[in-house]
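User: Okay, second chain of the day. Same drill as before: sequence in, structure tokens out.
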Amino acid sequence: MNHMTVYLKNKVLTDNLRTTPVFVALFNGDIEVTTASYSRQPGVFASPTDGQTSNSADILFPIAAESWGDITHIGILDAKTGGNLLFKSQAEFTKNIDISSQYKIPKNYLIVRLR
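Assistant: Same drill. Structure tokens below.
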């Protein structure tokens, strides 16, 4: 068997994104941003429906005190530092974060879907 039921998809999403704290991270390709002004931000997700969920509030990163480079990917981890990468995907578009810039993921824009 290789297909999950909708029930199981919703359970996996709930167990991994709603019952324990998760943190959203920004990546330059395969490398997470590591500058002094950067930090992972908490992610809060809605109850999943049909094997899909999204952030239930804006995710706002700190204002960059130095260049973070081109943000190409977004990840979700199970810890503020270190931890395990749970999900990672290419961002909808690449955005360069330079000094005094800020990265924001609006409510409902970070969609996690199990297929």
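The mean pLDDT is 97.

User: Thanks, on to the next one.
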